[in-house]
């Protein structure tokens, strides 16, 4: 089973590559396609001209205006930089159009159309973009009126010019909004993970503090008994060693209490509570049954002497998975909980049929179960295990976790 990617990493990958989104050639190979576009536009400017009746014709080389060739070259090749310098490209194409305005039957307005779209699409918010649109509107109006074209054609030309710039700007704003949403989702995922790790750290504090307390008490008792041993005096070195163990244990407890004070929220003034383990899963199942969820519990023989962190994290995963069943499937649902040990791992499976009566439509319909999955996944990863969670094909939800019995991070 492959390790589940943490949500923060998934958000970063989505922000960077947006996998699954259909991309055209201009998005896949932007520089190459811009070069092709610039070359095609240059060929059109040189060899195609406008004919009476809104028709297009091929311009023979013998009638080519050599004075206009540099202007055509500048307007066409400038499109290669339409992404890097859209406003500069728009200025070049507008100047080229203005220079050739006294002449007729050329298509120098074509690169202006492309430059207007590119200015809206790639240029930052600035007064120069709308100013370029105004200049283009003025040029198209003068050009069409010079040829005695009807006002309807001039109005249509103005609409096309403004529309292309506006469409490009709309796409740019849409992409900016999408990027902001991705960034916010990534930041939210990082915040959730940090909160879950803080909560896990508080639980681990209680576990470690208990073990260190036992060690300290035992060392102190051993020193006291050794000092009054009936078989004879205890070597001074042994007494000093036991005293050192006791002192180190007391210092470790002090540091742990300080750590808990840093991690515990201000509104959490209670002291440490006994932490549950897999032995408490039957009692947890009874509590969930009391809420109206039918819980079937299957407990295989589990290894004895599990590390406290493994015992605690396994219980928390079962607890969170059943809580999700109650929250998102509701009373009347059926949950199947299976606990077993396979190949040095504890395997946890919690499945529900989604057949309850109080499902929350906002969270349960999108294939996730809220922030609880983040906490379960973090616990599994901190132990070097894996966790998969997702909707079942036949309805309901499935959570499967594999936790190494040693509890060592990968």
Profile the largest sheet: 5 strands, mixed
Report the C-alpha radius of gyration, rounded: 36 Å
- What is the ordering of alpha helices and beta strands? HHHEEHHHHHHHEHEEHHEE
Shape: elongated
Low-confidence stretches: 1-20, 359-369
Q: Proportion of β residues?
A: 5-15%
What would you call the structural class?
alpha+beta
Output the strand order for the largest sheet: 3-4-5-7-6
- Average pLDDT: 77
Helix content: 55-70%
User: What's the count of strands?
Assistant: 7
What distance lies between the first and last C-alpha atoms, to the nearest angstrom?
Answer: 14 Å
| Tally of separate helices | 13
Describe the structure.
The model is unreliable at 1-20 and 359-369 (pLDDT under 50). Helix content is 59%, strand content 11%. Strand 1 (48-51) and strand 2 (55-58) form a beta hairpin. It has helices at residues 7-17, 25-28, 30-47, 69-77, 86-99, 109-122, 128-146, 151-227, 236-263, 281-290, 308-328, 361-364, 372-382, and strands at residues 48-51, 55-58, 294-299, 334-342, 345-352, 386-391, 397-404. With 410 residues, the protein is of the alpha+beta class.
Question: What's the gist of this structure?
Answer:
With 410 residues, the chain is of the alpha+beta class. Helix content is 59%, strand content 11%. The longest helix has 77 residues, at 151-227.
Write the layout of secondary structure elements.
Blueprint: H1 7-17, H2 25-28, H3 30-47, E1 48-51, E2 55-58, H4 69-77, H5 86-99, H6 109-122, H7 128-146, H8 151-227, H9 236-263, H10 281-290, E3 294-299, H11 308-328, E4 334-342, E5 345-352, H12 361-364, H13 372-382, E6 386-391, E7 397-404
Parallel strand pairs: 3-4
Antiparallel strand pairs: 1-2, 4-5, 5-7, 6-7
